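If you are new to this repository, start here. Below is one unmodified record pulled from the training split, so you can see the exact layout before writing a loader.
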Amino acid sequence: GHSGNSRLSHKSTTTFLSGTSQTVNDLSDTWYTLSAWVRSSGKNEVYMALKCGNEEKRVYIPSTVPGYRWIRLSVSNMATGGSCTITLHSFGTPESWASFDDIELVPGQTALSILGADISSLYKSEAKGGVYKYADGTQADALEILATNGMNYARLRIWVDPADGYHNKAEILAMAKRIKAQGMKLLVDFHYSDDWADPGKQNKPAAWKDLDFEQLKQAVYDHTYDVCKSLAEQGTPADMVQIGNEINAGMLWPDGDYNHFQNLGELLKSGIQAAKDGSELTKIMLHIAEGGDNEMARWWFDNITRQEVPYDVIGISYYPFWHGSLAELQSNLIDLSIRYDKDVVVAEVAYPFTVLEGDKLANIANRRMAIDGYPFTPEGQRKMVRDVMAIVRGVPGGRGLGIFYWDATWTIVEGNGWDTKDPNSGNSWENQALFDFNYEVLPALGEYLNP
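And here is the target side for that same chain:
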């Protein structure tokens, strides 16, 4: 078992349908949360359900192979009439199995508070003629479609002096008005570069290249303060900011790379102070990639902790075809939330809805990268979003805040490719957007309505 020698398992040598249930009585008419530690072989449909009155809420259990790791899942429902029924359900092929342990039903509701997406591509897409549609083909504002389907938080990246003139301060200010008008919150993702910044590249803006370290810290402060203060002054303050994007290996190389953690700490503190000076209620996220790698994450946050860098939220990127299993992701999130006493967010996640290519550029995620049980189809994409949300929701104490899908609106639009210096460049991500090749919203977004 998870915490002892016993567990409940469903298994058979033949195809089987198995259910275990218990009705709990004498409940108050309030929210209750069912949680359990579970694991599954895959090749089967397994879920926990909590039925109160006529309404049943479910959480599906993904495969925990390889490694047979236990994961914690939870689901909430409103008790009515004094009772609820717990059901553990398995439909399996021969030799498939599911196991359950440490099952609890406690008062209270567990739900994700951040149901977000990165929509940094949207402004340029619209400028180049991009359109967005509901599932029935009705054309509408992309932000309206996203909000109608449950999205409550938008993420925007900002570069210092981008070659194509997009993803800058002017764009952030314009988009912030539209985001707030839809009732959404705003996360600003500072890259501190003129172009893409990630674990493999953290290049300084051209205008900062010859600055000494003290001048570089001041440049970080000035840029961050200017953006945050301007957003606040127009009545659309950033609810959260990232000081750096996927900064596993540091930022503003070489001064702030991972060989110079003291420098990195000083640069982060400069940006954090600027964000707070510009908008004191703005929360601070520190964001790294490789969501299933707990050893790396502990190494990084241990070093940052030694530098006494103040922050509010840990952000982790998780791309299933690169960053380990769902069980490894949850194990990392749980450890980080407890070890550093922080809320955690999956700051980037995506999954393909097709193996096809919509333009001339090969897709980053090709058919050989599909995860078992999650085909590159609209349904496979929906299942992955559903299960990543369940993994985050299962972080104890409600410390798993939610997800940001990346990049939900980066559809096929001529001129809106990945290379800011080449207007004819293609898009290698279009098969992972939340809109299909006909620009219609995909079923995965509907999972946002079930937080």
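Two things worth knowing about this chain: Helices lie at 122-127, 142-148, 169-181, 213-233, 261-278, 294-306, 326-340, 378-393. The chain has a mean pLDDT of 96.
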